[in-house]
Amino acid sequence: MILNRFVAVLILYFKAGSGTTVSDGYDDFVEEDNAPQLDYKNPHWCHAPGLTNGEVTCHSPRGPAYRSTLGTRCEMGCDRGYRLLGKSSIQCLANRRWSGTAYCRKMRCHVLHLIPHGRYTCTQGFMVDSRCEFTCDPGYRIEGQPSRVCQRSGSWSGAQPACEDTDPPKIKCPPSRLKVAEPGKLTALVTWDTPVAKDTADGSLDVILVGQEPGTDFKEGASIIRYKVYDEARNRAACKFIVRVEVRRCPDLPPPMHGYLTCSADGNNYGATCEYHCDGGQERRGVSSRVCQFNRSWGGNPAECVPMEIKSDVKTVSALLDQFYEKRRLLIMSAPNISDPDYQLQNIMIQKSDCGLDLRHVSVIELLGSPPRETGRIKESLLGSEVIEGLRQVFRISRFYFSMLLLDERGLDRERFIHPMASDELFSYIDSFLLDEGERERLELHRDFCD
């Protein structure tokens, strides 16, 4: 009604003018007057807007109670986990339609990749707000964030974690062991099984030995044996044990008076044998050797070195020589008579070298003259005629010229001399050809005794 009155007043105004024609603006107005009449009173000009999984917030010119009147503007918003596709803001137009459309689509994140040696579980798959927890296989540990969340932007929070092998291998060495050295030795043969190493990630691994190999001879004392192993991630494990070798020993065995000992191995270890030897002019009485036993005691009783007793009243040459067998060497000196100049010269040199002969275990037998006044003697002890004749026949010793015969400890003819021998020459021959290594060493220790 108000609009009609306004048009009538406007027509009357133009007719009351100076009679000029109506301007073009009037024609435009007529066209607007022919347009559809807007009815702001109708509350349902556009259909009521709706948004599945979302929310529509509208503002109407008529006030908050009107949601679809002409000119109403609505803001479109999606629920959490959904993305808006279309117009975020629409307006109710005069053609009774909204200026655009929109709908909400459920949000998803991309599929997470599996991590080596691990896995993950998610609360809602790959949807928004889904939380995926990562776990590792036995022997591995998570490096990084153990979980990721699908965010509203469609991307995952954080970075992809990794499973790192931080669990060292497992290895167990054999127990430590004690071995007694073998008889006559200072070592013991020790064996054991090589330990096997395992790793939760890599399975069986190569084991490295640090120390002496099993199945070899170990010396006296403690030896530390180590094994170590590395897995593919260079995690390390090691173990060790001790091999102890014990040498059972007897108390030190004292040498006999006027004699000495020669012992095998270390001298007083289990299984060692010590032999008794006597100095020149002495002979052994008792056992020839003693052995260190497992109970740390010496077998048998100690031997003694006593002055050598020579029985000169024997009836045969063999009985005489048996007394010297493997004990003494013999130097048999023969001359036609006591006044022979070669004999006298040799006799003087023999008397001066008596100490050196004893050190070399040499006894002198003298054969002088011819029957029936022939004599034989060992120092002051006289020999029977049968023994003298036996010596001459066995060793082919002449009565008609000076000669000297050297026998070894087994009674074998080693050298003959037809001229007197100086003690240095005689001793040089004995030292070079009749003494063994032990006797030479012993001689060097006692050489000064004769000075």
Automatic annotation (TrEMBL):
| Superkingdom of origin | Eukaryota
Coiled-coil spans are none
GO BP? angiogenesis; cell-cell adhesion; positive regulation of cell migration involved in sprouting angiogenesis; positive regulation of synapse assembly
Predominant subcellular localization, coarse grouping: other
Keyword Cytoplasm set for record = yes
Q: Which UniProt keywords apply?
A: Angiogenesis, Cell adhesion, Cytoplasm, Disulfide bond, Repeat, Secreted, Signal, Sushi, Synapse
Recorded GO terms, molecular function? Answer: signaling receptor binding
Which Gene Ontology terms of cellular component type are present?
Answer: cell surface; cytoplasm; extracellular region; synapse
Q: What is this protein called?
A: Sushi repeat-containing protein SRPX2
* CDD domains xrefs: CCP
Question: What InterPro entries does the record tag this protein with?
Answer: DUF4174 (IPR025232), HYR_dom (IPR003410), SRPX-like (IPR043555), Sushi/SCR/CCP_sf (IPR035976), Sushi_SCR_CCP_dom (IPR000436)
